[in-house]
Write a structure and sequence with these properties.
The complex is a heterodimer of chains A (806) and B (475). Chain A is 7% helix and 54% strand. Chain A has 806 residues and is mainly β. Chain A has three domains: 3-119, Immunoglobulins (Immunoglobulin-like); 144-247, TonB-dependent receptor, plug domain (Ferric Hydroxamate Uptake Protein, Chain A, domain 1, Beta Complex); 248-805, Maltoporin, Chain A. In chain A, the strands form eight sheets. Chain A has a 22-stranded antiparallel β-barrel. In chain A, strand 35 (614-634) and strand 36 (643-665) form a beta hairpin. By secondary structure, chain B is mostly beta strands. Among the domains of chain B are: 1-31; 169-271, Thrombin, subunit H (Beta Barrel). Helices cover 13% and strands 40% of the residues of chain B. Chain B has five helices and 34 strands. In chain B, strands 7-33-32-31-30 form a five-stranded mixed sheet, with no helix packed on it. Chain B has a four-stranded antiparallel sheet with strand order 2-1-3-4. Chain B has a four-stranded antiparallel sheet with strand order 8-6-5-34, with no helix packed on it. In chain B, strand 10 (138-142) and strand 11 (149-155) form a beta hairpin. The longest helix of chain B has 31 residues, at 3-33. Chain B is elongated. The chains are: A mainly beta (806), B mainly beta (475). At the A-B interface, loops of A face strand 8, strand 12 and strand 32 of B.
């Protein structure tokens, strides 16, 4: 996980701060005055914890009345001794967090224990990014290009992880509809599975399919790391353009965080996260969510009429409900002899989706087809630092049993008003042929990270990722080979990725470097479950290996100006869905090869402070990619040939991304990001391969930007209350669905612009936060893949209640 | 003369001029407004601003006649009248169609058959463009925006492609439609194997249905209909295949009696377990005497079955069991029993047709079958491998066949082809042409019937040529 590899950098920066702070404290608060008073004095001790942070900060604790203070140690503990009896105000502070003041009464020869939980100061947060290096910021400045989104500060909004990502520079999230619909992330001009998504460093698809980016509530998330370009060995597996790593919330103090959100289209999103610490070493945590939405927003569609014509109708979606839930319990042991952290967890998740249409909005609706999934997952985590914290060992293991049930077997044909108006003897609504397939996938995933720091400036990391999947199923409607349902013959999929990296700092840490190599190995045997002829079910087997490598450099010219460059040869091994198809519309391709890409990323960051809370910053980056064996979905050519993932020879991509942050006033912030990119087909021209070479690869937007603004002020009703208003504007220029040089309107996804506005009301320190949000305020027509409409203007109300206690 | 006098003269002059205007005004008004125009097609108008719609473009004489009580005069001018190009539909010319690897279809209209190199990327892009028939300049195709059903596409005066009507189907996989004439066409909505529909190709209105129950009963599993072969005004033969893939046995060919509105006969070739193949576009199955030449493709799994042309004699409803023309075997008798394939066949004229066959059998296929100890031991993966070889090895050829003498002549001048090459024939100007796209060639060829040799007409760049459609032909 990202947290462990940052340990030494944390230590380094903390070390610097500690030194400065110690000098200051020694200078300001001469200890001589405290000598010789031990017998008649008392002691104050305790711990300072940061909200939502697992690491303990080097925070400052002060008694201003006596002009004494201390820094907390690596366990967050502090101790102030030699204090004369009396009642004092004690201050705990940490940059980027609100200073907390408590009252304490000290008695002679006694020890008073007092603990602090510091909550994040949203106003100060951007300041923190530079001076104190919060984990998010530090990641953003990593030589291997990262944007890190601190989700915690967005948790009072009713945003989901997808909309948070969609506002990030260079990231475009495309969603085929409302809550629960399919999402595809576009990053550095790549999309689909080329951009991998991880939850705590494990590819999301290995969680069983129910947990997806767009049903994961922000309250369950600590932060989202976006890796543009290359991924560190201990986070990434195989990705071409980078990936998204969602870090779930893990804390070891008591808290209860409940939220409920209600919105348009009968949308209910509830989440309950809680943690209880028992004694010093045991933490029990619970994480759960429940999502439901009818997704019954209005769309325009062409309805087929009985005379074989079509009329345009505006209808409410009627078979589009999404329901998903997850409950996960975790028992953790912390700071015990043999482990810094050891946890076992069990998680169950499920989802049910009604399907309203196929990849396009057709001339009739889908009224019965559905997809149900559930998964039971067990996981085990272990983390230990040894040899005076030089050696760090981390293990994450995950076992899951996932089931998916496809239901598409009706002969009824529905119109867009939800009525049956005809019969289709083909017996299905969405798929190539009817299916009642019950599938089962058993997965075992292991991830082992070992790192060794020679000194605070040089660290070696080894990471090994191994996953094994076994896929079986049954479908009463499948064609039998002999008497055998080919779905029942198991398929096996194994992949192993081993990475070694060397991270170091040079020239007074002005130059940071990361050099890494990876080795990819895959081995699979797959039953041809779609076979329709023959006497036996044939099994395809393939195995192979590929090397990968990369180098990243970051040079800090000044505190507020740095440059970074990275190069990688990246490999991506085809996933289960690409090799096996989706058991429905997509045929398997057992001969699919891994795709490869050579990526170059160059970036620069500059920040100018006008005052501690007024600044302007600019992050610019450029990327170039040379890709081969690109995996893409090819539609069937003739008749009803099913689609299949294939290897496309060559593609080149280049683009720039700019992010601007401006804080003209203390409580007013604006940010904007712009992406311009071009992805073109490459290859060796021959008579027929002239097609497309040098032409843009279709269906990828090339220009998009977004602008965000936020203003915070004290409530006119109560000074303790805070009001934040925020707005987001997203623009995507029109783009072509297919390659074309002559404009044909029917192949164009029109220009899209969407504005969201919201307001958050924080009720003092009660832990209660209310937010109101309206999305797509101007009720603009916004689209997704194949011009599937997204919801128009919609509203939501979110109530969040947070109790935290040390 | 004093200045004062000068001024007076000027005033007088002005007065005279004004008087003169007043005198002439009635005449001028009459000249202007009493117009008797003889417009070039015999129409006249006395309106002050006459307008007229001409039925056809061309050069017309417009006569302006002015009269008053005493005088009459006329003047003739010739005007060139052009039609609103958006309302024009081309009835001749050529559409070159190509497809990119990214599944974009590109179509471009040419008034004259092009030469040199056509950069088809400058054409109009479509998500789908699958011509099935042409009639009076319109192309009948599956719908171009990916929706379910069929469209009638015309080319207007700006050479732009215009959708002139649709038929919306329930199944998005419906691809079978053929046009017989301006009043009659047939299509299949794959949602219902028991019904075909008839339509008016001019208006694109659905006019009726045909009961296909008898054809659907050929197999316990539902079937689908591949194409429609029109014989005379009352008969349609319908190549049939299983809905889920696979063959209806005995290359069964149901026949519709249009008057009865149903299938009345089924031609079968007893005990022939072969694959029914059919042409994707148009007709070209009937000779001048209405003998119907149909064809089957050959079977990898049963190499003793050769791809062959078979015949339903004029007036008959059944195959002529004595007529089988195994074209690849005749072409190369050494292939007999090893695997012979006939993937496309078109009837031309005077008992001549054209077929794409395998000239040789790839040695790798022979070796693999030998290694397995016979075709009965081939696995699915072996079949896939063999198919791959058949699609890629240059062992195929277009041949000219004489259906009476059963002789085969290879067409020279074409690039090497695989037996399953995606190349297609077009009968541009009524004569045989070949559209060939493979890694070494992307071009359109004309057959020189005198020499039997193909000559390149034009090269294509930008996408793989799929065909050329002559809008003056009804197919």
């Amino acid at each position: 996980m990202a947290t462990s590899n940052l340990h030494f950098r944390d230590s380094f920066f903390h070390g610097c701060r500690a030194l400065i702070a110690t000098v200051l404290i020694c200078f300001c608060f001469p200890k001589s005055s405290l000598q010789g008073q031990q017998l008649s004095t008392g002691t104050i001790s305790g711990r300072v914890t940061l909200q939502n942070q697992t690491e303990f900060p080097l925070a400052t604790v002060q008694l201003p009345d006596l002009s004494i203070g201390d820094l907390t140690n690596e366990k967050g503990e502090f101790k102030l001794s030699g204090i004369e009896p009396g009642t004092y105000q004690i201050h705990a502070s940490y940059l980027g967090y609100e200073t907390q003041i408590q009252e304490v009464t000290v008695k002679a020869q006694s020890d008073v224990e007092i603990n602090f939980l510091l909550s994040e100061d949203v106003n100060q947060l951007n300041e923190v990014l530079v001076t104190a290096q919060s984990q998010s910021t530090e990641l953003s400045q990593n030589p291997i290009q990262i944007a890190s989104i601190d989700v915690v500060k967005l948790q009072s909004e009713s945003a989901d992880v997808v909309s948070v990502l969609d506002r990030t520079a260079g990231v475009r999230v495309r969603q085929s509809g409302g809550l629960g619909s399919n999402t595809s992330i576009q990053l550095n001009g790549l999309s689909g599975l080329a951009v991998r998504t991880y939850l705590d460093g494990i590819p999301l698809e290995l969680y069983g399919g129910s947990v997806q980016l767009n049903n994961l509530p922000v309250n369950a998330v600590e932060r989202v790391d976006v890796y543009k370009g290359v991924m560190p060995v201990d986070v990434g597996t195989d990705a071409l353009a980078g990936g998204i790593n969602v870090i779930s919330r893990q804390v070891d103090y008591d808290y209860l965080d409940a939220s409920y959100q209600f919105g348009s289209f009968n949308t209910h999103i509830g989440s309950l996260n809680a943690s209880k610490k028992i004694g010093d070493h045991i933490v029990f945590s619970l994480s759960s969510f429940y999502n439901y939405s009818d997704n019954n927003y209005q769309i325009r569609a062409n309805q087929r009429t009985p005379d074989f014509k079509e009329i345009e109708v505006e209808v409410e979606r009627f078979h589009s409900a999404h329901q998903s839930s997850m409950v996960s319990g975790n028992l953790g042991l912390i700071n015990i002899g043999w482990a810094d952290k050891f946890s076992v967890g069990v998680s169950y998740n499920q989802r049910f989706d009604e399907i309203q249409h196929g990849v396009r909005i057709g001339n009739r609706a889908v009224g019965e087809a559905s997809l149900r999934r559930n998964a039971l997952i067990g996981n085990l985590q272990y983390r230990k630092r040894l040899l005076n914290n030089r050696l760090s060992i981390g293990y994450f293991g995950n076992f899951s049993i996932a089931e998916e049930m496809v239901r598409d077997s009706t002969t009824n044909v529905y119109d867009w008003f939800g009525n049956v108006f005809a019969q289709n003897s083909q017996g299905m609504e969405v798929l190539g042929r009817p299916s009642l397939r019950d599938g089962r996938t058993e997965s075992v995933v292991n991830r082992l990270n070992i790192s060794y720091a020679f000194d605070p400036l040089h660290e070696l990391k080894l990471s090994s990722f191994l996953s094994n999947q076994r896929i079986t199923g049954s479908d009463p409607l499948a064609i039998r080979i002999g008497d055998v349902d080919p779905n029942t013959v198991p398929s096996l999929l194994m992949r192993s990725i081993t990475g070694l990296s060397y991270e170091s700092k040079w020239f007074d840490a002005k130059l940071e470097s990361i050099l890494f190599g990876k080795f990819y190995y895959y081995d699979q045997s797959a039953a041809d479950f779609r076979a329709s002829v023959g006497n036996q079910v044939f099994e395809f087997a393939s195995e192979g290996s590929e090397p990968g490598y990369g180098l990243g450099l970051k040079y800090t010219l000044k505190d507020n100006l740095f440059f970074r460059v990275s190069y990688e040869q990246a490999i991506r091994i085809p996933t289960k869905d690409e090799v096996f198809g989706n058991f429905l519309t997509i045929e398997p391709n057992f001969f699919l090869r891994p795709e490869k890409s050579k990526n170059l990323n160059v970036g620069a960051y500059y920040k100018h402070n006008f005052s501690p809370q007024q600044y302007i910053s600019l992050d610019a980056s450029w990327f170039l990619r040379d890709q081969s064996d690109l995996i893409r979905l090819e539609a069937g050519r003739n008749e009803n040939d099913p689609a299949q993932f294939i290897n496309e020879a060559e593609a080149d991509a280049t683009g720039i991304e700019l992010t601007l942050n401006i804080a003209p006033l203390k409580d007013l912030q604006f940010s904007g990001s712009l992406t311009l990119q071009e992805v073109v087909k490459d290859g060796i021209p021959n008579a027929t391969n002239t097609n497309g070479i040098g032409n843009p690869i279709p269906n990828i937007p090339s220009t998009f930007y977004n602008i965000a603004g936020r203003y915070k002020f004290a409530s006119p009703f109560s000074k303790a209350d805070e009001i934040s208003v925020f707005g987001y504007y997203t623009f995507v220029n029109e783009f072509d669905l297919i390659f074309q040089t002559t404009r044909n309107e029917e192949n164009i996804i029109p220009l899209q612009s969407q504005m969201d506005l919201g307001l958050t009301y924080k009720f003092g320190h009660s832990g209660l936060i209310l937010s109101l949000q309206t999305n797509n305020l101007l009720d603009a027509e916004v689209f997704d893949n194949y011009r599937v409409p997204k919801p128009g203007r919609n509203f939501s109300i979110k109530l969040r209640y947070l109790i935290q206690r040390i | 003369m004093t200045c004062r006098h000068l001024k007076l003269i000027q005033w007088l002059d002005l007065l005279l001029q004004l008087m003169s205007w007043q005198l002439h005004l009635p005449i001028l008004l009459q000249m202007l407004f009493l117009i008797v125009g003889i417009l070039g097609d015999g129409n006249t108008s006395t309106e002050t601003n006459p307008s007229h719609t001409y039925a056809e473009a061309g050069t017309y004489a417009v006569v302006l006649t002015a009269t008053n009580a005493d005088l009459m005069d006329d003047e003739t001018q010739s005007v060139s009248v052009e039609l609103n190009p958006e309302n024009v539909r081309q009835t001749s010319g050529y559409v070159v169609l190509a497809q990119t690897d990214d599944d974009t279809w590109l179509a471009q209209y040419f008034a004259e058959l092009p030469s040199g190199t056509v950069d088809i990327s400058q054409g109009t892009a479509f998500q789908n463009f699958f011509p099935l028939s042409t009639l009076d300049g319109a192309i009948y195709t599956t719908r171009t925006d990916g929706s379910a059903g069929f469209a009638k596409i015309g080319i207007d005066g700006n050479e732009a492609f215009v959708e002139d009507g649709i038929i919306s189907t329930i199944s998005a996989e419906s691809f079978s439609m053929r046009v017989r004439d301006a009043d009659f066409g047939v299509f299949h909505d794959r949602s219902d194997p028991n019904t075909l529909n008839t339509f008016n190709p001019t208006t694109m209105e659905v006019t009726g249905s045909i009961d296909m129950t008898m054809a659907n009963a050929l197999s316990p599993d539902p079937v689908r209909y591949q194409t429609f072969i029109f014989r005379g005004d009352n008969e349609i033969f319908v190549p049939t295949r299983l809905e889920a893939g696979g063959n209806v046995p005995n290359i069964s060919l149901p026949k519709i009696d249009i008057g009865a509105g149903a299938v009345t006969d089924v031609a079968v070739f007893e005990n022939l377990g072969d694959v029914v193949v059919f042409n994707r576009f148009g007709q070209r199955y009937l000779d001048e005497s209405d003998n119907l030449y149909f064809f089957h493709g050959g079977n990898i799994g049963v190499p003793t079955i050769s791809g062959a042309v078979v015949k339903i004699p004029a007036g008959a409803n059944d195959y002529d069991m004595d007529y089988s023309f195994p074209v690849p075997e005749v072409n190369n008798p050494a292939l007999t029993g090893q695997g012979t394939f006939l993937s496309t066949f078109y009837y031309y004229k005077n008992n001549i047709g054209y077929a794409l066959i395998n000239e040789e059998l790839d040695q790798r296929i022979i070796d693999l079958v030998t290694e397995r100890g016979g075709t009965q031991n081939l696995t699915d993966a072996d079949f896939q491998q063999i198919l791959f070889w058949l699609f890629t090895s240059p062992t195929g050829a277009w041949v000219q066949v004489d259906l009476v003498t059963k002789s085969v002549t290879k067409i020279t001048g074409l690039p090497p082809l695989s037996p399953f090459d995606a190349s297609n024939m077009s009968f541009v100007g009524g004569t045989p042409h070949f559209a060939i796209a493979n890694p070494s060639v992307n071009a359109f060829y004309r057959l020189n019937e005198m020499t039997g040799m193909a000559e390149k007409v034009f090269d294509v760049t930008g996408a793989n040529i799929a065909g050329v459609f002559d809008l003056s032909l009804n197919e």
